[in-house]
Amino acid sequence: MPNFVKKNLDVIDEFKHKGKREQLVQLLREKGIDDENVLQAINKVPRHLFMDSAFEEFAYKDQAFPIAADQTISHPFTVAKQSSLLHIHPNDKVLEVGTGSGYQTAVLVEMGADVYTIERQKELFDFSQRIFRKIKIRPKYATYGDGYKGLPSFAPFDRIIVTAGSPTIPKTLLKQLAIGGIMVIPIGQKNQMMTTFLRVGDRDFEKMEFGDCQFVPMLERTEK
Ligand code: SAH
């Protein structure tokens, strides 16, 4: 267990954190996020519990931060942007690839989605499970595995969100999208383009692009 996990399990959500979250929500509004469901979820989820408590005072700034296993918790703006692009309705069945800290998962669960999430790093998978239990966030299903494969036994999904940069378009994931469903994914090598695919038919997808972004790479197979 990474050291900070033990510490984080003792940290609590206090009044001062709530105040900082409200300021963050205001900032996200100014940056153009207008999906109220997303903003309310960000207002509720204690982001500081998903990061090393050494960074607690920065948890509600619009910054990415290192988590375990050389990965990062995305900028709140990125989380808000990807969540908005999904156009979530209550009980939408959402596949998330790259649980990481679990922060994005928690935001989607707060938005009312039924979330199925996959993480390839065992250390992060274990960390996210502990935090979910602590703050009583319940994804429908969380697993340690290779997200390139998706979760065929649970497909089709209404929505798919990939939170790591994929060098190419993962066809296996597109196949697991319901007709009428949306996938949001950063596509590219070093820098990526935030991209959505709307499945309009069995073989037809409408692609849209939403600007440059930078994510850690989506990698194949799992790591202990
Ligand atoms: N949504 C996360 C972002 C974490 S960074 C958060 O809010 O904290 C991206 C994550 O994707 C990393 O944890 C990385 O290990 C994971 N990842 C990369 N490739 C993957 C794959 N093929 N399957 C599952 N997870 C993957």
Question: What's the number of helices?
Answer: 7
Instruction: Determine the mean pLDDT.
Output: 95
Widest sheet: strand order? 5-4-3-6-7-8-9
Distance between the termini: 12 Å
- What is the rounded Rg? 16 Å
Unreliable residue stretches? none
The total beta strand count reads 9
Proportion of residues in helical segments: 25-40%
The helix-and-strand class reads alpha/beta
Can you give a write-up of this model?
The protein has about 220 residues and is α/β, with parallel strands linked by helices. Helix content is about 30%, strand content about 25%. It contains 7 helices and 9 strands, in the order αααββαβαβαββαβββ. The protein has helices at about 5-10, 15-30, 35-45, 75-85, 105-110, 120-135, 170-175, and strands spanning about 65, 70-75, 95, 115-120, 140-145, 155-160, 175-185, 190-200, 205-215. The strands form 2 sheets. Strands 5-4-3-6-7-8-9 form a 7-stranded mixed β-sheet. Strands 1-2 form a two-stranded antiparallel sheet. Strand 1 and strand 2 (about 70-75) form a beta hairpin. Helix 2 runs antiparallel to helix 3 (about 35-45) and helix 3 packs across helix 5 (about 105-110). It is globular and about 50 Å long. The two termini are about 10 Å apart. S-adenosyl-L-homocysteine binds near residues 98, 103, 104, 147 and 216.
Outline of this structure?
With 224 residues, this protein is an alpha/beta fold.
Name the descriptors:
binds S-adenosyl-L-homocysteine; 30% helix; alpha/beta; 7 helices; single chain; 224 residues; seven-stranded mixed β-sheet; globular; 24% strand
